[in-house]
Specification:
The protein is an alpha+beta fold. The protein folds into four domains: 2-159, Deoxyribonuclease I, Chain A; 173-263, no CATH class; 305-412, no CATH class; 545-691, no CATH class. It has 25 helices and 15 strands. A hairpin with a 2-residue loop joins strand 1 and strand 2 (12-19).
């Protein structure tokens, strides 16, 4: 199906549609003029769109006009003059109303009692050519939700190809028990959704009292929760990022789920000799034999440079399109630095909004974004360190889980008579082994070997004293084959041998060693993580938690972070980066435009801060950078709600300046303040509503099943 836009405006969109089976036809979406003095504009719009068109044509939308008095209930009397506008236009354009199935009205003011008003404003109109092209098509009025309009659906009969119903597969008794348990434990949300929607349809046809409208809102809340659970259910079943690809609960994701189930089912397999097996035990045996031969063979598979380059090109192209990396590729391979730098480059381009070959201004050094959020960064990963840490993680699993299959295979091949920390890399070692060994120094920085039975803890090589630097003794090694080698050799009668210690170590070392308890039972020596490491980064004066933990939308938090870090496109900052522009503030025309000036010290910004509920006098902070100013007020204000309003007003000032500088529209300062305060209130209320959803289910059950 091809769609070509003919024309569009604020009140219409007109398109030509070319379908494979029915040929070409035309659709016009209409939004009628809502102003009472401009209702004639809807009729003129229809007449202008018709323009003697004799092909198949259908119009649909919110016309904001009615045709007859029965299409209105409540409120002031029906206006026949307004209805005549639509009647005349329909006759002039040779159109016919397609009618409807369902509730009589498509709009309501959502008020109860005598204040309730309902009208039929939404409809589809088609000419005779379109009706002959699509005979049997009809319009349905669907169930109303939170909007004051209910959705209307045009069903084109010829285009519907309903799949044949397949016979439902009979469940085994265990599956039936599991399904019954699931319905009892978590509820049958699909049937409950149908029940809720049926109840709303029933309430729509009753007198719209305050009680009925309240019940409808309660059921709406429950439907939101059920639809969220339904989305999560199909998302988990399909394993797709489906909300980025399409609408909720479409056929695509159901089909994807069935495809995955069929793809994951192995029905038969051939072994290396070509014998075919379909028995489950034989299939398992073939898999085990194949992988045992792969891991214990003498051959080593080296990565082909051409293949590796092809894989990298594919990953980088995938990264450009979706910026969604499968980090499993990093687990068992040491990537070349140019590849890791290329991935970081793509991340930088994505973050700063660069597309294609265009270049964007980077206002903050990328290495500063590696810092965690609480220290002023964004927690981005350094790809080189990330690759090494994942390889180190694999090495740690091999070191601490010696009974695993991969640990046993690698030990038998590379270090049969030693430990992973003493293993060596040979010229014929596999690329995977060399990658893991390349990250072994990561383990030495944070691992120690607590003393168990002491039989495998080497005195001079292993990190075993928890209170010494690097957990190692710093006395000269006596490992000459004559003295003690393992920690167990330093014990006598279930205690430390002080005579042996005095010959080998300094008094400081002896004191720390004697603090280690000698175990009273045979306990294996196992490696452990170092839990005493501290960060070497200096803490920031500003408490970043007031930004990231605030009750504001993510865009407000992100802008506040950029402003405090000085990463806003102020003229003074742009000049420092080599741009030849006028540094004077375009609003006041007096001072240079820095971040502090544009958001705080500009005369209009000063007035906004003073008139706001915060009552900030910004003038006494002149001479400070914006980040320093925020740090100073952070010392005196710790209330989270205070910071919620501060960040919202900061965002409002930024939008207000941009509106004036780029659109030459000036907004009242009090509107900026009121919008910021209301935005905070709405967001906080939404967060409270999320926590109160637990009680909604019980209310809906009382409405749906009042006799229980």
């Amino acid at each position: 199906m091809d769609v070509v836009v003919r024309s569009y405006s604020h009140n219409h969109i007109d398109v030509d549609i070319d379908s494979e089976f029915q040929g070409g036809w035309r659709f016009s979406g209409i939004y009628g003029y809502p102003e009472e003095g401009n209702k004639m504009g809807t009729g003129l719009l229809l007449k202008r769109l018709w323009d003697n068109h004799d092909g198949p044509w259908i119009c649909g939308g919110d016309f904001n006009l009615m045709l007859q008095s029965s299409e209105k209930a409540g409120g002031r009397e029906f206006c026949d003059d307004e209805a005549e506008i639509l009647r005349e236009a329909i006759t002039y354009c040779n159109l016919e109303d397609l009618g409807y199935i369902g509730h009589d009205f498509t709009w309501t003011n959502n008020r109860g009692g005598t204040e309730n008003i309902q009208e039929h404003l939404d409809r589809f109109l088609a000419n005779r050519a379109w009706r002959e092209c699509f005979p049997g098509s009809f319009v349905s009025h669907l169930t109303k939700r939170r909007s004051n309009h209910l959705p209307i659906l045009l069903c084109i009969k010829e285009a519907l190809e309903l799949p044949k119903k397949k016979k439902k597969k009979k469940l085994y008794r265990f599956e039936e028990m599991l399904s019954a348990w699931s319905r009892q434990k978590f509820g049958d949300f699909i049937n409950e959704l149908h029940a809720c929607r049926s109840q709303i349809e029933k309430l729509m046809n009753e007198a719209q009292t305050e009680e009925v409208i309240s019940q409808m809102k309660t059921i709406d809340d429950r439907i939101d929760e059920l639809e969220r659970r339904e989305e999560m259910y199909w998302k988990q079943r399909s394993r797709q990022d489906w909300l980025q690809h399409g609408d909720k609960n479409t056929t695509f994701f159901h089909t994807k789920t069935k495809q995955r189930a069929e793809r994951n089912n192995i029905k038969k397999i051939k072994d290396e000799a070509g014998n075919e097996f379909d028995d489950e035990e034989k299939i398992t045996e073939v898999f085990v034999n194949y992988f045992e031969g792969m891991f214990t063979g003498n051959s080593h598979i080296e990565p082909d440079p051409v293949i590796e380059k092809s894989i990298v090109s594919f990953l980088l192209e995938r990264q450009r399109k979706r910026l969604n990396m499968c980090w499993g590729f990093f687990l068992l391979m040491r990537w070349h630095m140019s590849i890791l730098d290329g991935i970081e480059k793509l991340c930088r381009q994505f973050f700063w909004g660069q597309k294609g070959e265009e270049r964007k201004l980077c206002l903050i050094a990328w290495n500063k974004l590696y810092l965690p959020k609480k220290e002023g960064g964004l927690g981005f990963r350094n790809m080189r360190n990330f690759n090494r840490s994942l390889l180190g993680k694999q090495a740690w699993r091999i070191l601490t889980n010696e009974d695993s299959l991969v640990a046993r295979v690698l030990k038998g091949k590379y270090y049969p008579h030693s430990s992973l920390m003493e293993a060596k890399v040979y010229s014929n070692s596999s690329y995977t082994w060399r990658s893991i060994m390349g990250a072994r120094d990561v383990l030495w920085k944070g691992a120690r070997k607590p003393v168990g039975n002491g039989s495998t803890v080497h005195i001079w090589k292993d990190p075993w004293v928890p209170t010494l630097p690097d957990f190692k003794v710093f006395s000269s090694s006596r490992d000459n084959g004559e003295g003690p080698t393992f920690v167990r050799d330093l014990w006598a009668n279930n205690s430390w041998n002080n005579a042996a210690l005095s010959l080998l170590f300094s008094p400081t070392e002896i004191k720390e060693i004697c603090n280690i308890p000698v175990p009273l039972y045979d306990r294996k020596d196992v490696w452990d993580k170092n839990g005493t490491a501290t960060s070497s980064r200096a803490s920031c004066n500003f408490k970043w938690s007031v930004v990231w933990n605030s009750d504001n939308t993510p865009k407000v938090k992100h802008f506040a972070w950029r402003a405090i870090k000085g990463a806003v496109d102020a003229r003074q900052s742009l000049i420092q980066r080599g741009m030849n522009i006028d540094p004077i503030c375009p609003m006041c025309g007096i001072e240079n435009e820095s971040v502090m000036h544009m958001l705080a010290l500009c005369p209009d910004a000063k007035r906004i801060w003073y008139l706001s509920p915060l009552r900030l006098e910004v003038g006494k902070y002149e001479g400070l950078e914006f980040g320093e100013w925020c740090g100073s007020i952070c010392l005196h204000h710790r209330d989270p709600h205070w910071w919620n309003i501060f960040l919202a007003i900061l965002w409002g000032i930024w939008l207000w300046r941009n509106m004036w500088c780029y659109e030459k529209r000036r907004k009242d300062m009090m509107d900026v303040i009121h919008k910021a305060v209301s935005m905070v209130g709405d967001y906080e209320q939404a967060q409270q509503d999320m926590t109160s959803r637990v009680g909604i289910y019980a209310k809906v059950q009382c409405i749906l099943q009042p006799n229980r």
